[in-house]
Amino acid sequence: MPLADAASPVAVNTSVPAAPRAVSRGVILSFGWVALAALLLSGLLWQKLSSIQEQLARQSADAGTQAVEARASAKQAQELSRETAARVSVYEARLSEVSLQRTQLEELMQSLSRSRDENLVVDIESALRLAQQQAQLTGSVEPLLAALKSADLRVARAAQPRLTPLQRAIGRDIDRIKSAAVSDTPGLLVKLDELVHMADELTLANAVASANVMAAATRPSLGGTAPQWWQRVLQVILDEARGLVRVSRIEQPEAALLSPEQSFFLRENFKLKLLNARMGLLARQLEASRADLAAASMSLNKYFDATSRKTQTAATLLQLVQSQMKTLELPRVDETLAALTTAAAGR
Fold it and tell me: Can you give the residue range of the structural domain that contains 310?
C-alpha cells in the first residue's frame, strides 16, 4: 500500500501539464493566423495606397502640363490681342484717311460736274419718282400730272436746247395720262362689299327646294266622291311621298356631295376671297387681288345654283369688278424718266 500511494502522485503530476500545452499551441496558431491576415491586409492597403499615390502623381503631372499649356495659350492670346489692336488702329487710321479722301473727291466731283441744268434734271427726276410712289399709294393720277406739269414749266424756263427731247417726252406722258381710263377704286370697294353681303343669300347647287313649294307646283287635283277630309289626307300623303325624292341636274357632281357643315365653310371661304381681294385693292397689290377674284368666280360658278336670280346677279357683279380691275393699273412716266437719264448723261 505505501508503494501504491507513492506511485499515484507521480501519475497525477505527469497528466496535468498536457492541457496548457494544447492551449498554448492553439493560441499560437490563432496569433499566427491573425498575424498573417494582418500582413495580407497591410499588403493590400499598401498596394491601394501605392495606386492612389500613383494616380495622384499622374493627376498632378497632368495638372502641371495643363497649367503650362494654359499659360502658353494665354501668352499667345495676349500677343494676338496686342497684334490685333495694332492692326485695328492702323486700319482705323487708313479708313479715316480714305473717308476724308472720298469726301474731298465727292465734293470736287460735285463742284466740277454739277451745273445748273444738271441740278434741274436731278430735281425733276426725284420729284417724278416721288409722285409715282404717291400715285401708287393713292390710286390717283393727280400727283403724276402735277409733277409733270411742274417739270414742263421748269424746263421751259431753263430754255436749254439740249433739254428739248426731255420737254417733248414730258408732253407725251401728260397727254397719255390724261387720256388713260383709270377705274374708280372707291366704286370697286363698294361692289366688293355688296358681294360679301350677298354671299349669305346665295343658293347652293345642292340645296333642296321647299316641300310645300314643290307640292303646290306639282299637286294634282283629286276628284271623285270621296269625302273632303279623305282627299286632304291623301293629298298630304302624296306631298310627303314626292318630297322624299328629288331629281335635278347638277353640272358639277362634287357640288352635290357637300354636307351642311361644308356648305357653311364654302360660303365663308367665298366671302374670305372677296375680303382678301378688297384688302389687296386697298394695298395696291393688284395681282393678288385679281387672283382672289378669279378664285371667287370659280367657286361661285361651281358650287352655287346658276339658275337662281341672286346667283346670276352676283356673277354679273363679280364679272364687272374683274373687268374694271384690268384697267386699274396706273400709267407710268417711263418715257420722261428715260429722257432724264439721257440728259443727265450729257447725250
Answer: 185-205+252-326
- Please tell me the distance from the alpha carbon of residue 303 to that of residue 264, in angstroms, as a whole number: 12
Cell of 105: 473727291
Local structure of residue 222 (DSSP, 8 states)? -
Q: Helix or strand or coil: residue 226?
A: coil
User: Do 79 and 190 belong to one domain?
Assistant: no
Integer Cα distance of 198 and 292 in angstroms: 17
Q: Please give the backbone phi and psi of residue 222, each rounded to the nearest 5 degrees, phi first.
A: -100, 115
Q: Which three cell numbers stand for residue 296?
A: 371667287
* 145 & 266 share domain: no
Residue 302 grid coordinates = 361651281
Residues 122, 82 share a domain? no
- CA–CA dist 299, 195 (Å, integer): 13
Radius of gyration for the alpha carbons in the chain, expressed in angstroms and rounded: 54
Q: What are phi and psi of 204, to 5 degrees?
A: -75, 160
Amino acid at 129: R
In-domain check, residue 61 = no
Q: What would the pLDDT profile of 8-31 be if each residue is shown by its tens digit?
A: 444 444 444 555 555 577 778 877
Continuous H helices in the chain: 2-15, 18-113, 116-138, 142-158, 164-179, 185-198, 211-218, 228-244, 260-282, 286-303, 309-326, 334-344
Query: What's the pTM value of the predicted model, to 2 decimals?
Result: 0.40
166 contacts 347 by C-beta, under 8 angstroms: no
Task: Give per-residue pLDDT as tens, 311-347.
Answer: 888 888 888 888 877 766 677 788 888 888 887 776 5
Q: DSSP secondary structure string, 144-158?
A: HHHHHHHHHHHHHHH
Cell (9 digits) for 104 = 474731298
- The letter for the amino acid at 201 is E
